[in-house]
Amino acid sequence: MAIRTHIITEKDDLPEVVRRYTRGIAQPGDVIALSESMVAITQGRAVLPQSVKVGRFADFLRRFAHPDGSLATPAAMQLAIQEAGLPRVLAAAAAAAIGRLFGRRGVFFRVADRGLNLIDDIGGTLYPYDRTIVLGPVNGQEVARRVKEATGVDTLIADVNDIHCVDIIGFTGQEDPRELLEALRNNPQGNDDEQTPIVVLKRVAS
Prior knowledge:
It is an enzyme of class 6 (ligase). By secondary structure, the chain is of the alpha+beta class.
């Protein structure tokens, strides 16, 4: 069940927001799934690109990023450097160049930092975040734990996209999350302007 919310900002208290919107809907045994962008935004990690001072390395390296990727703009690459550190990003770029020679993809993010893969560059559809770069959330496991404390329901934070890729950032449950991954693979939270960053997953008796 996807739950529509107000436009979330960094002024929102995430556990309280989730508790309020899921009250009477989520029950023990369910799982509350939160979008990673929602979590990141409440942490103040939505950045206006014009506020980023781009260095020469970022301007150079972004030319090698996939044009449809999340690090294709100078500001996004600069933020990636600030997140992971320049030496690590340079090492990742070198490893990616070698990987391409052997037809291997995704080497850059494996070497640089898994979290860089969570950066959402400019081009979103929901105002005002259609003008910002949204970095990945920090301390995902701890955030999930605090939301569970507020709601009494197991909580999962996930990065989901429209090409059926799911990445779990934090999860308070004890069970194998593969079943939950399948439930999220069709992206019930949406990547457009649905404004439904909270999804309550309920088990249905077979």
